[in-house]
Amino acid sequence: MSYLRRLLPVAILLAVSAVLVPGAIGQAGAAARSSPSAHAASSFQTGIGDEQGEMFSNPLWRQLHTKIARYIAPYDAAAGINSLVSCYHHAECEAAAHWIELASAAHQQILVAFYHSERTPTTLPSVAAYQRDVQRFVKLFPHVRQYQSWDEANRGNISHVLASPSAVAAAKYYQALLRSCKGCTAIGLDVLDQANISPTLSYISEFKREIGRLRTIMPRIWGLHDYSDVNRLESWRTRDLSRALGGQVWLTETGGIVQFGSAFPNRHGSGLARAAKVLKYTFAVAASESQIKRLYIYDWTGGNSSTRFDAGLANAHDQPRAGYIVVCHELHGARCNAKVAKN
């Protein structure tokens, strides 16, 4: 996750804090509409999203036996690179190349999600500039065949921090991605659920209208981040948004929050137990929704006491947390009795 995403701007923190308060979790989970069916089941793949390539050499990660992994790259990571062989000391491109190399060596099917520029995060690219830079990235990594045009497209603009595309712009970026990677799997709109899903539903509808106006291919696979839902032990947002999206749904980011500012503190390890409970619930939600075909847990690399957002399965020292044990058991790992870290 980029520095800006790890920072999680205060505007978003305040908005989410209003509903993701720890005290509300138990009450929310008791609501009848929030409980996933224990009898409905679907087959879905599970993987990890993380931008730290060291994950692939960790024995704890290896015993999960996952086959899919997700990486977030700036859309302009390959901007200005003329060679189609190497990144030529271009930091963001080299970081992507390093991660992709390690993921490939670990036999992972790679999903790359494009995001804002790290150099000019508050400026959205023209469609032509986006397509040029993305096409260059695609040519650099020809064996990567799954992409998302914009990570959390509906996140919204944060003044002086980052800009997010309108639904109309997101549709045009999606069309540009299709043109840039012929024969690739282009996952459709990638959205964040948010506490109140009404704006998200409107965003989805507007995106679909623009896809129709552009006369481009309507996505058959969609991306959803359901943090607000599962971290309240609720499932109705995931269900309603999945229906609105249609087709296959991939939970391209999900997981249990260990620490998120003052809303989700990790005092005396309370966040670790809470996140583990959420992760177990997340698997139940995914199993209850036949549309859900993939689940990418975000993320592997945990932070420390000063980290604003932390959902790591392992701590900053690569030691397993309680959430890791939940995931390992769910995936039938060879051994899931690793000593659990206390931070």
What does this structure look like?
This protein has 343 residues and is an alpha/beta fold. It has a single domain (3-16, 47-330), classed as Alpha-Beta Barrel (TIM Barrel), CATH 3.20.20. It contains twelve helices and eleven strands. The chain has helices spanning 3-7, 10-17, 23-29, 59-62, 91-105, 127-140, 167-180, 198-214, 227-230, 236-245, 270-288, 322-330; strands spanning 45-49, 68-74, 109-115, 146-148, 185-187, 190-192, 221-225, 248-254, 259-260, 292-298, 309-310. The strands form two sheets. Strands 5-4-3-2-1-10-8-7-6 form a nine-stranded parallel β-sheet. A two-stranded antiparallel sheet has the order 9-11. Helix 6 links the parallel strand 3 and strand 4 (146-148). It is globular and about 50 Å long. 47% of the residues are buried. The model is unreliable at 6-33 (pLDDT under 50).
Keywords:
single chain, 343 residues, alpha/beta, TIM Barrel, 9-stranded parallel β-sheet, two-stranded antiparallel sheet
Q: What is the total tally of β strands? A: 11
Low-pLDDT runs of 5+ residues are 6-33
Shape verdict: globular
Percentage of residues assigned to helices:
25-40%
- CATH topology heading: TIM Barrel
Largest β-sheet summary = 9 strands, parallel
Known CATH architecture: Alpha-Beta Barrel
> Radius of gyration from the CA trace?
19 Å
Number of helices: 12
Report, as a whole number of angstroms, the end-to-end distance.
20 Å
- Indicate the structural class: alpha/beta
Order of helices and strands: HHHEHEHEHEHEEHEHHEEHEEH
Count of discrete structural domains: 1
Strand percentage lies at 5-15%
Strand order of the largest sheet: 5-4-3-2-1-10-8-7-6
